Amino acid sequence: MQSENRFFDDLSKIINGAAGTVAGMTREFESNAKERAKEWIGGLDFVSREEFETVKAMAAQAREQVVALEARLAALEGTAPDAAAKVKPKPKAPKAQN
Questions:
Q1: Contact criterion met (CB below 8 Å) for 84 and 74
Q2: What is d(CA 81, CA 75) in angstroms, rounded to the nearest whole number?
């Protein structure tokens, strides 16, 4: 009986050691993967939320200026804004394929 207990004791020590090794390898893999991901993302051209919001506000202001300038141009040319909006450019004819 004592030899069986010793066998199971040794077996449990081996299994516990292997489990500890696997857990350590898992932690090391996760930390390496996180570090690689940070390096990869850091190399990309991402913008901060503040920069995005600033550019978004600038684009909205530019759109407002375009609308105001279009109305001013229409007034200077003597055309009504409705008439300018109704004029559409003619579509180009498709090129013949060879």
A1: yes
A2: 8
